[in-house]
Specification:
Blueprint (H helix, E strand, L loop, with lengths): L9 E5 L3 H12 L4 E5 L2 H10 L4 E5 L7 H10 L6 E5 L7 H6 L4 E4 L4 H34 L3 H11 L6 E3 L2 H8 L3 H13 L3 E5 L2 E4 L1 H5 L1
Parallel strand pairs: 1-2, 1-3, 3-4, 4-5
Antiparallel strand pairs: 6-8, 7-8
């Protein structure tokens, strides 16, 4: 688990109990770019409507507006922000509503630090990877307009066929068959990308694509 990938994320944490709110904020702040706090769902809704946040972590029972109502309102406004709910065993009546909202995770209270970090990581990781891939696609698209040719097609193929761990599993022949290119073209392209630090060979037919290098 590489927690460094969370460093650019912004989290909105909604909790009415001040001591819990501050303690949890301090823990999360060690891993992410910013933790915005709110003391109830009404304030949380206002912040989420005005700020770009990557994840909402919210309690259920709070004054003025509960966490479920806050998330429902955001969904109705087409703000589909990933959400984690912190819940006590006494709040089971609300869990069905939370499941209907397709929240991304549940953390039981009192909050366990390991559960908090693991659930946050597992919720944010797919969105971080999607953002990275979209960034790569934009770069590849721009390069294709400037350079064109088979090498850009090979680069695009590698980007689009990486797994969730940024690893490409495939042989030269897979690319040759998919793109109708010659072996020397594929071999030379791989050599150039490895030399440039864009790609690294893990073992035979397994390469790790350094997408952040390409974006940068």
């Amino acid at each position: 688990m590489d927690l460094n990938c969370l460093k650019d994320s912004v989290i909105l944490y909604v909790e009415d109990e001040e001591s819990v709110r501050e303690q949890t904020r301090m823990i999360l702040a060690d891993f992410v770019k910013e933790v915005i706090v709110a003391e109830d769902g009404q304030i949380g809704l206002k912040i989420a409507s005005e700020r770009e946040v990557d994840l909402i972590i919210t309690d259920i029972l709070m004054p003025n507006m509960d966490g479920i109502t806050m998330l429902k309102t955001l969904r109705n406004e087409q703000r589909h922000i990933p959400a984690i709910i912190t819940t006590a065993f006494t709040e089971t009546n609300y869990l069905l509503d939370a499941i209907k909202l397709q929240v991304n995770g549940f953390i039981t209270k009192p909050i366990n630090i390991k559960d908090l970090i693991n659930t946050t990581y597992n919720t944010l990781l797919p969105h971080i990877q999607k953002r990275e891939l979209e960034g790569c696609s934009h770069v590849v698209e721009a390069l294709s307009k400037l350079v064109g040719g088979k090498k850009i097609a090979i680069l695009r193929y590698i980007v689009e066929n990486c797994d969730s761990d940024n690893v490409f599993h495939g042989s030269y022949y897979d690319i040759m068959e998919a793109l109708d290119v010659s072996k020397p073209t594929v071999v030379n392209m791989f050599k150039q990308m490895i030399s440039a630090g864009i790609l690294e060979k893990v073992k035979n037919k397994v390469y790790r694509f350094k997408k952040t290098e390409l974006i940068g």
